[in-house]
């Protein structure tokens, strides 16, 4: 299920002016990356491989420029595999599971509960070749003019059923024939966002 340095498959801005307007700002690289790390786990990359396209879309810690948040843009009717690369930090983790929900205007359109690994050892700090990686089974996106647009997604990782990390992101469905890409470069952080926001990131010991 998990290897060292190799893939494995799992059966897996300026403030606005004017009275009454909410100010916004852009996140720094450090703020963006902080959302993908806590006391237990550090996410190195999340990538989507789309059927019919050679190159995957990869969101990684070394991206330049760095998007404001995770945002994948996929053509309608796409079939894709999600791969997650991560490092375990303080202690071994047991029975890791991945949960993903995707909603359109508040209505769930996808809900996945997937196994990651039974036992995840602690990875060596500073060793780029020592990591865990899991590829999940295929999933798909809908199509049609009424179903194109932004979908609100949320990824959750649990250890033995206990929440240890979560993150909200965007899955954007576009017209067939449009090349897949990564978005989120123009997003801005509303004042107060990220401060106690609804489980956007969970820090767990």
UniProtKB/TrEMBL annotation:
Biased composition (Low complexity): 1-22
Gene Ontology terms, MF aspect: Rho GDP-dissociation inhibitor activity
Region (Disordered): 1-29, 181-205
Xref: SUPFAM superfamilies: E set domains
Domain of life: Eukaryota
GO process annotations (BP): Rho protein signal transduction
InterPro entries the UniProt entry points to: Ig_E-set, Rho_GDI, RhoGDI_dom_sf
Chain intervals with Acidic residues compositional bias: 185-205
Keywords, ordered alphabetically: Cytoplasm
Coiled-coil stretches: none
PANTHER family reported in the protein's UniProt record: LD16419P (PTHR10980:SF3), RHO GDP-DISSOCIATION INHIBITOR (PTHR10980)
Family, similarity comment: Belongs to the Rho GDI family.
Protein name: Rho GDP-dissociation inhibitor
Lineage of producing organism: Eukaryota, Fungi, Dikarya, Ascomycota, Saccharomycotina
Name of the coding gene: RDI1_1
